[in-house]
Write a structure and sequence with these properties.
The chain is an alpha+beta fold and 151 residues long. It folds into 2 domains: 53 residues, no CATH class; 86 residues, Rossmann fold (3-Layer(aba) Sandwich), CATH 3.40.50.11320. It has a 4-stranded mixed β-sheet. Strand 3 and strand 4 form a beta hairpin. It is globular, with a radius of gyration of 18 Å. It starts with 16 loop residues before the first helix and ends in a 5-residue tail after the last helix. Belongs to the peptidase S10 family. Keywords: Carboxypeptidase, Glycoprotein, Hydrolase, Protease.
Length: 151
């Protein structure tokens, strides 16, 4: 098991989030756990702009709207601008959630027919890549949600 504790740039050696994700993604144990075939990718880089593909999906909202009629539990974090277009009912308004006695972020919950529920959560100080900048908080958030606890 590979455990990286350094996730801020003020750590000795100047290891920051970008460096940590680079080290993690290029670690052979991690690649084996993710079933990356040896030799497939010689070195992982953060952004690969050389891929050639056609960008043809302008929105995923119709997919989400379709799924609201299923018996699903959904967790969304980071952005919520499109959630209102799903026409869900507010089940629980904004409340803080905690990690180690500190506010880890805030969450609210929406509901729809049957047993569909959508939890929208924020991660305090999470930035663009919350799991990279706030790994403890993100692990707590997803662990609580997967265990069926209120975030």
């Amino acid at each position: 098991m590979l455990v990286l504790f350094s996730h801020t740039t003020n750590q000795p050696g100047g290891v920051g989030p970008t460096t940590t994700s680079y080290i993690w993604a290029n670690n052979r144990q991690v690649q084996t756990a993710l079933h990356v075939r040896k030799g497939t990718k010689m070195e992982w880089s953060r952004c690969n702009w050389s891929l050639s593909y056609t960008y043809d999906i302008t929105t995923t909202v119709p997919y989400h709207k379709y799924l609201t009629n299923k018996d699903y539990k959904v967790l969304i974090y980071s952005t919520n601008t499109w959630i209102k277009s799903l026409n869900l009912s507010l089940k629980r308004d904004w409340l803080p959630w905690y990690v180690g006695g500190q506010v880890g972020g805030y969450a609210l919950e929406y509901a729809h027919e049957q047993n569909y529920s959508l939890v929208f959560a924020t991660v305090k100080g999470g930035g663009h890549t919350a799991p990279e900048y706030r790994p403890e908080e993100c692990l707590a958030m997803i662990s609580k949600w997967l265990a069926g606890f209120t975030i």
